[in-house]
Amino acid sequence: MSSSEPTDAPVPATEAPQHPLAKLAQDAKARLDAQIAVFQDATRLLAPLTKPDLLLRPKKFEDQVRALTSRLSDLQRKALGLDETMSALETGCSTLTEELRKRTGRELKARCEAERIDFRVVSKEHPIEVRLVPLSVTLDFEKGQAQFKFARESLATAPLDVAAIIDTYRTLERELAGPFDPKAYFTQLREAYALALVRAGKSLGDRVDIVDVLPFVALLRQSKGFLEKPERDAFVRYTRAHFAFDIMRLREAEALEHDGARLNLGVATGNSTAHKNRVVYVEDGAGVGEYKLSLFFSTT
What's the pLDDT score for residue 1? Predict the structure, then answer.
């Protein structure tokens, strides 16, 4: 067969040229689809900004505004009717933290006065620290949260909202400031001290690390049910903060001496204060205190 003879191979079909009107409509649709995508993206980024809780977290609010700004060109802002809105949001971010700081401080102080909570300002520098006696509360206006501490131990966090701060304070107050019998607690500490001495192979009157007494105090506070069947669900927590709180209450009751014995707390000095896991910060309701390293009982 010569190369000039016809073959049976199919001839590829050619597309019919697009009508100018169809091309016009297609281009218009593509432009509208692009605009819809911009609208949807702007709507998605604007949605979190409508939530009041985000205003309690100025840094996150500012990040969200910055994300929206980076997505929209000046032309898109104008086309979407967001030019004035975006300008107002960007300007507002610069003063949001200061506005929140002033409002929260003013409202928190007023609420504390109304509920007879002793309110004191410890530091006005960022992050601001106040005292809702006996607890320390750090107000972080960038993160939008309040952190509660006692004896420099973290207890809880709450949103930077006055109602939430007061509710958290009341909850922690109930947990820490339950019924307290100074003489009974003094006796309990002596028993815990005696157990710590046995474990350390020491004699009565010797110093033991204060953190080595804490587990025995926690054990002596457990219910009879736990001692008979020691399981996790029956265990009552007794934290370092609670330990420091009870020692504070013992001091306030002027009950450091009882039944011929006196409780002594050794101050942590030098490098010992660097090992926070081996010391306990013992403070008063105003937050004045020092790290304690050891505990012992002496005769009076």
Answer: 47
Nearest one of 66, 73, 72, 62 to 41, comparing CA atoms: 72
For residue 143, give both structure tokens.
């993160």
Q: What is d(CA 207, CA 265) in angstroms, rounded to the nearest whole number? A: 9
- Tokens representing 52? 């009041």
CA nearest to 280, candidates 261, 295, 270, 263: 295
For residue 38, what are the CA distances in angstroms to 47, 73, 75?
A: 14, 10, 12
Which range scores top for mean pLDDT: 15-29, 42-56, 209-223? 209-223
Task: State the pLDDT at residue 99.
Answer: 87
Give the residue from 106, 100, 128, 130 showing the smallest Cα distance to 118: 130
Radius of gyration of the chain, Cα coordinates, nearest whole angstrom: 34
Higher pLDDT, 40 or 4: 40
**Residue among 254, 236, 241, 259 at smallest CA distance from 188:** 259
Do β-strands 128-132 and 135-140 pair in parallel, antiparallel, or remain unpaired? antiparallel
Segments in the chain forming alpha helices (H): 20-46, 58-71, 74-79, 83-114, 162-176, 182-200, 210-220, 224-228, 240-252
Can you tell me the distance from the alpha carbon of 192 to that of 211, in angstroms, rounded to the nearest whole number?
11
Could you tell me which residues come within 8 angstroms of residue 162 by beta carbon, excluding any fewer than 6 positions away? 104, 107, 108, 111
- The Cα-based distances of 101 to 142, 156, 160 in angstroms read 10, 20, 10
- The C-alpha atoms of residue 105 and residue 128 are separated, in whole angstroms, by 10
46, amino acid identity: L
Give this prediction's pTM.
0.76
Assess whether pLDDT exceeds 90 at residue 188. Answer: yes
**pLDDT digits 0-9 by tens, 224-265:** 888 888 888 889 899 999 999 999 999 999 999 999 999 999
Q: What angle do CA 91, 94, 99 make, to 5 degrees?
A: 110
